[in-house]
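fold-stage: in
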Amino acid sequence: MNSEMGSNVQTIDIGSPRTESKSNYVREVFENAPHYLRTRQVDIRFRLEVVRTLADTVKWRRLLDIGCGDGSISLQLLTSASYLTLMDLSASMVALAKKNVSEDLAANVVIRNENFIAASFDAEPYDLVVAVGVMAHVDSPDAFLAKIKSLLRPGGNLIVEFTDSRHFVGRLGRLWGNVKEVVAPAKYPTNKLSFSDVALLFKKHDLRLVSAFRYARIPLPGIDRIMSHEMQYKLAQLLFGGSSNNRNSRFGNEYICLLTND
């Protein structure tokens, strides 16, 4: 991908924060884009692979990526016959996404530095919405899914990722997180969701679950200091398989789901 953004990319910048919700704190955390991208390499690699596989199973022309980060997850799907809207609260993430847009596809991309819940959209629905790494950080998962539902065409699809915090692996992660927060309190509380919580929201909004890929990171404190991300990814892939052959899913607390808008 080019290091310079194509001149035809449309960019929308909201400037200063306008809401009283925790989105301002979320924005502050994700402004340190290099740190997030460096520390979440295992998750990013699974997301890249699984989202690509799931998107290849459905028909779409217009795609909205909410919480797009550096854009790599959705930009890999873009063709000259499709259109992509990248949206993120973080100006730092949006800047990286701009750099990752290839010049020959710049006219097919709109980048929005906005809060999804507060944003306005035109009347044309999306065929596919991608939202990975977002559900834990929104004010209301219910309102979040309701707005996604309103933007999807009938029969359109949603690819969404979330962490089951009540899974035993998730509980281990929460325990270690609570210990760390004694020393360095979190800037805001994340949503502690379970699969059953999210499944009820899917049902409420008539979003039918088609498939789910599940995996887990190694739930050991300080694992990044003793094992490279490459090794962690290979071990997780050995246990959980790839996007087309998920195995041992009961041990996975990270869900990447494909849903249809019925």
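fold-stage: in (second)
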Amino acid sequence: MPGNGRVFVPLCGKSLDMIWLRAQGHEVLGVEISPIAVRDFFAENDLNPGHCPCGKMERYEVDRLSILCGDFFSLSADDLAGCSSVYDRASLIAFPRDMRRGYAEQLKAILPPSTPILLVTLEYPQDEMRGPPFSVAEDEVRDLFEPQYVVQRLHAGDVLADNKRFRERGLSRLTERIFALAPREP
């Protein structure tokens, strides 16, 4: 993530990654549809945010950490003005295949120009487990984001041994992939 700019975390839920990103000096902006998840995130982290309406969303904010509570697909480019990077650990994989293209198109449409994305995906035999999270192959990532982005796989590793809940759900393999998506010059 470049410098100490604002990091956008789509479909953030109660992710502790937002706390970690803030501790690294970043301003963090998440979006989450569930008001329960937003409330629980702040309560579980002993944070008392301010709250105000923000267009079609409700904004909760405390000390360089903001969450917009509402539908990701209602976000506009104005909502993400000032974001310098995206951290997508659980968003793309939260959508079934028939919704992923819409998610990717919305993300590309609302991001400020030249905004890089750090994307984490999981891949497993989809017939072994119903999502979410859903299995997303590298070819699909490339299909969704190229040619607007240069897609570079940074890491791929078997993470099944470290994920008891996925083993208990019957998975025979689980590969985590991390991608850097760099916007191409216009």
